């Protein structure tokens, strides 16, 4: 069962990422320890794609370094 977009956003916020806003259904999250912003696309109730889950997991791991 894929995660929902709202769950991915919640995980990012718990890891200390800040929502910079975005355009339409896109949101940009930044963190002081992560070089590139993380872009999350989709409405909160949508199922997340597998690549979105992988990108967010990698960004959270990078933020812990």
UniProtKB/TrEMBL annotation:
Coiled-coil portions: none
Keyword Transit peptide attributed: no
Q: Which GO terms describe its molecular function?
A: endonuclease activity; hydrolase activity; mRNA binding
Q: Which domain of life is it from?
A: Bacteria
Write down the Pfam families for this protein, in alphabetical order.
HicA_toxin
User: Keywords in UniProt for this one?
Assistant: Endonuclease, Hydrolase, Nuclease, RNA-binding, Stress response, Toxin-antitoxin system
Keyword Nuclease set for record: yes
Q: Which family does it belong to?
A: Belongs to the HicA mRNA interferase family.
Official protein name in the record: YcfA family protein
């Amino acid at each position: 069962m894929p995660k929902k977009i709202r769950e991915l956003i919640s995980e990012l916020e718990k890891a200390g990422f800040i929502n910079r806003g975005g355009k339409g259904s896109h949101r940009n999250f930044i963190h002081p320890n992560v070089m590139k912003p993380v872009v999350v696309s989709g409405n909160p109730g949508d199922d997340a794609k597998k690549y979105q889950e992988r990108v967010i997991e990698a960004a959270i791991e990078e933020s812990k370094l």
